[in-house]
Amino acid sequence: MINPSEVGKSGEMVRLRTLESIWIQGKLRMWGRWSYIGSGSGGNMFNQLLVSGKITKTAINDALRRMKKSGISKPELEAFFKEIISSKNKSGLAFCSDEEGLKIDGVIAGVLMNEDYRSLYGVIVDRHRLRKSKLQMANELLEKHPDWTLITCRRRIDTWISLAESILYAPLCDAFGTNGDRFYLQSEQESA
Fold this sequence. Notes:
Blueprint: H1 18-37, H2 41-51, H3 57-70, H4 74-86, H5 98-112, H6 118-129, H7 134-144, H8 150-175
């Protein structure tokens, strides 16, 4: 099958369907960029610039001047732009508005900021806000647990990210008013 509807092994409880996974990862990626550039007051200027329909050279210079005043260093801004440019997947969904970012942030905080899921919140922040690779996260986990193997750490990171995405999927669908079952095909049977 060229476009499978599910990834992973059949019967796994934690995995999202392929399109659900793509949707949630896109939302989390946008939230990560939004929260990264929105961490200073200058980030909001950048978001406003991106959301506006027309970007002029004057508007860019004005935003850069305000960002400099707010304390965002040139290397931080450079690193942010390099990450966008070197990104494998170019998308128009790279950024979200402040409204969308706050909505996603509220859902993530509401769902994961409790005793049960606090560590999953850290995994989501590391992956999407701090933009760490899964391998980098696995190496950090290996430093904390030297008796584990690297492959064990990589599998745990994959599982934790998948679990966090699964937990966040339905609440994010509700927050954005989308139908969580929209990716099921009409002819597809429901699994038990």
